[in-house]
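2.7 Reproducibility. Because tokenized structures are sensitive to small changes in the input, we list the exact sequence used for TetR/AcrR family transcriptional regulator, including any N-terminal residues retained from the expression construct. No trimming or masking was applied before prediction.
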Amino acid sequence: MFATEFNDLPPRSQEKHLAIIDAAKQLFLETGFGPTSMDAVAERAGVSKRTVYSHFECKEALFDSIMSQMCSVLGAAIQEQIDVMMAKAETATGPDPEMAEMLQVLGCRFLTLISDQTDVALFRIIIGEASRFPQLGREFFEKGPKKLTEQLSVYLARQHELGTLDIDDPNQAAWHFLAMVKDPIHLKLLIGLQDTPSQKEIKEIAEKGVDRFLKIYAV
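Resulting structure tokens (single pass, no recycling of outputs):
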């Protein structure tokens, strides 16, 4: 699958590229992946079908671009918070008394991002189409969950060095942290049993998740 590199396009083509992505995202959310056609995307975007195909080889490439954009936004927001956490941890010389609070802030940010209704709807589509288009599933895993755990594992490894946590495998511990924070609320969101949580609810859920994590890994 190919998608034209955005930065390589002239300004007018960039506008069309963004219009195509925006139109496709609207249609995917309104009707699902299967019923959405490239003809419908072209009509919604106000461009020709030929223009759509000049930017995206196929519908899968178009959806992959939308998925990558979602993962990029999530990853950047998480990395921003982890950078703040790492800056504090790098100056510490012993067990970090601020770690629990930092993890709670991270948990709140993570929950807020994955509870967004648009992202929840896109995630449903990814799950539904992954069996037919395994490449979509693989790319989502690489750009989303795997990247998040790699980002977090660096911080957890540092906390192990400081003696705040006792961790043999920082990457596995990162998976545990994300699971403890998001479950079961994310599953309930996906199957329609949960409305978007309030910030108060998110804070309470994050605190409980961090408490569970620290019971396992805190020194």
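The chain has a mean pLDDT of 93.
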